[in-house]
Write a structure and sequence with these properties.
Layout lengths: L1 E8 L7 H20 L3 E6 L5 E7 L3 H9 L7 E8 L9
Antiparallel strand pairs: 1-3, 1-4, 2-3
């Protein structure tokens, strides 16, 4: 299944710089692992916001949940998930 995942980072602004940087580094590392596993397909930044839009592929919603919950910033994310279905125009003749 494919999912469109929108995340907004809600890390408090008074978070110490060293903690913030460690979390960012951990996010990058975990995102690369999810890419290597074929779960994270694409990732875009939302200009002007501390937000992303990602295309994920998972066997089911539970696997997607586990992948998202494995992100270091998980508890500071506002997340919206949309399951995607193939449009008839996208199907091969």
């Amino acid at each position: 299944m494919e999912f469109l995942v929108r995340t907004e980072n809600t890390l408090p602004p008074d978070t110490p710089d060293d903690v913030r940087e460690a979390l960012r580094k951990g996010e990058r590392e975990r995102a690369m692992q999810l890419r290597e596993a074929g779960i994270l397909k694409r990732l875009w930044r939302v200009p002007g916001r501390n937000a992303t839009i990602g295309l994920y592929e998972a066997a089911d919603p539970a696997q997607l949940h586990d992948a998202l919950a494995s992100l270091p910033m998980w508890k500071w994310m506002d997340i919206t998930v949309e399951a995607l279905a193939t449009h008839p125009q996208e199907k091969a003749p």
